[in-house]
Structures are given as C-alpha cells and as structure tokens.
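Incident review: delayed structure delivery

Summary: a single-chain prediction request sat in the queue longer than the usual turnaround. Root cause was a stuck worker, restarted by the on-call engineer. No data loss occurred. The affected request and its eventual output are reproduced below so the record is complete for anyone auditing the incident later.

Affected input:
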Amino acid sequence: MDHASGLLYVHHQVGFSATETLTGKQQFENWAYNHGVLVAFYMTDNGTFGAKEFVDAIIARGQQVKYCGVGAHHQNGVAERSIRTVSNMALVMMLHASISKMA
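Output delivered after worker restart:
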C-alpha cells in the first residue's frame, strides 16, 4: 500500500516464508519500476519482514525499512485497512462462488 497515492498492489502468496515474501517484493518493485517509480522505503511489521533475508535484500538495494507492531493500526493504519479490505473482498468472492454452486 502506497500512502501517498493510495495504490494497492496485491501479490498472491501461499505461505509466510521469507523466500515467498522476497519474490513478492521483487515483483512489486519490478511493477513499480515499469511505471516510473523507485521504491526507497518500506514500513512494515517485524514478522517475516524482520527475517535476515528480507533485511539483507533491503540493504542491498539501498532501501530503508521502519518497523511497527504487528496489527498496530495506530502505527500503520492505512496499510492495515488495506489488508482488511483485501481480506474482506476475498471472503465475499469465496462466499459468492459457494452460493453460485448451490444454485
């Protein structure tokens, strides 16, 4: 979630491993670069994003990262609200698919 523009980028991820997170990071940065944006800063929780592999990738690209508490809506409310929106949309789509099968 980009705080300035309101852009929400979604990358499907099956697990929470650092490898999958780095794949998503790389795909997002490629997408952003193709649209003329260089990512310089991340604000995230310290779960998977605190893993050595993720931190090393941040440092290697000359980026910065700031950590906030997991689920800390008061620290990163824009991103937390976006996560809630995407989760709710996915739930509604699954329920719709389930109802459609019954009809």
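Verification: The beta strands are 41-45, 64-68.
Action items: add queue-age alerting; document worker restart procedure.
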